[in-house]
Automatic annotation (TrEMBL):
Protein name, UniProt field: 5'-nucleotidase SurE
Cofactor: binding details: Binds 1 divalent metal cation per subunit.
Family that this chain belongs to: Belongs to the SurE nucleotidase family.
Alphabetically ordered keywords of this record: Cytoplasm, Hydrolase, Metal-binding, Nucleotide-binding
Record organism: Baekduia soli
GO cellular component: cytoplasm
Domain of life: Bacteria
Names of the cofactor(s): a divalent metal cation
Gene expressing this chain: surE
Lineage, broadest ranks: Bacteria, Bacillati, Actinomycetota, Thermoleophilia, Solirubrobacterales
InterPro entries, sorted: SurE, SurE-like_Pase/nucleotidase, SurE-like_sf
EC nos: 3.1.3.5
Survival protein SurE-like phosphatase/nucleotidase domain location: 3-196
Database matches in PANTHER family: 5'-NUCLEOTIDASE SURE, 5'_3'-NUCLEOTIDASE SURE
UniProt binding sites for a divalent metal cation: D8, D9, S41, N98
Length: 274
């Protein structure tokens, strides 16, 4: 199986390095690494369209190599799918291991999950894997300590047995691993975040030029609902969530179709009598 490994923390990130080592030990895996040349956390599904992408071959020090780009995580998957490596196209996209959880509403911001989503856009199965910090923080802030061993082992086993894991077409697996040794695995739905962002000025107001602000606040909380990924990780279990790209609210199609939207095509009447 030809596996593309990418991330949003950068090609030098420890999470990617340890997952790479585990995948190289997995029988039947033909691995290629294409990752950003620096941190691209929380960039979502951004792509680069207005300039050429820079790509550089990177030696890993164990005889292997990968490719670093100044683009986004999604760009990395597109580079692989469009033939950056001559004679090689991926059968599977693996994104991670992310430094920090990607749970609940976080997935809409995550470059890790976005890379996996691009896999399913290309018709490929995909896995996004993220690791909670050792302080058991439930978000993806930087500057924390992590242990990636359990996440790397579990992800490699999923890749090894992907043919027997029921993964419908157009579906990715979003995997979140708790701190320390997991107590189990739970298939869970996405939960709901409670964000505590604040608008905080940086320094004093300048005499000229723009005023600068921070908009990231304290650690996000969550609604502790059974069956969610947030609750599973909080309880020390690996959360595995199947996701897809169909954002349609299907139950809303009927009521909306019953409304008279055609009337909106008519010009508004002039209410001012002259």
């Amino acid at each position: 199986m030809r596996v593309l490994l990418t991330n949003d923390d950068g090609i030098d990130a420890e999470g990617l390095r340890l997952l790479r080592a585990e995948l190289l030990r997995t029988e039947g895996v033909d691995l290629v690494v294409i990752a950003p040349d620096g941190n691209r956390s929380a960039i979502g599904r951004g792509i680069t369209t207005r300039r050429a992408l820079g790509v550089q071959r990177i030696e890993f020090g164990d005889g292997g190599h990968g490719y670093a780009t100044d683009g986004t995580p999604v760009d990395c998957v597109r580079l692989a799918g469009l033939g950056l490596v001559e004679g090689w196209e991926p059968d599977l996209v693996v994104a991670g291991i992310n430094h920090g959880s990607n749970l609940g509403d976080d997935v809409t911001y995550s470059g890790t999950v976005a890379a996996a989503m691009e896999g399913i856009v290309l018709g490929l199965p995909a896995i996004a894997v993220s690791q909670q910090s050792l302080k058991r923080e439930m978000d993806f802030r930087l500057g924390l300590e992590f242990s990636f061993a359990a996440a790397a082992r579990f992800t490699a086993r999923v890749v090894e047995e992907l043919e027997v894991v029921p993964l419908p077409p157009g579906t990715l697996l979003n995997i979140n691993v708790p701190a320390n040794e997991p107590s189990g695995v739970e298939v869970a739905r996405l939960g709901r975040r409670i964000y505590r962002d604040q608008l905080r000025p940086e320094g004093d107001a300048p005499e000229d030029g723009p005023r600068r602000y921070f908009i990231y606040g304290e650690q996000a909380g969550f609604e502790d609902e059974p069956g969610t990924d947030l609750a599973a990780v909080a309880a020390g279990r690996i959360a595995v969530t199947p996701m897809h790209l169909d954002l349609t609210h299907h139950d809303g199609i009927g009521p909306l179709s019953a409304s008279d939207l055609h009337r909106l095509l008519a010009p508004a009447e002039d209410e001012v009598q002259g």
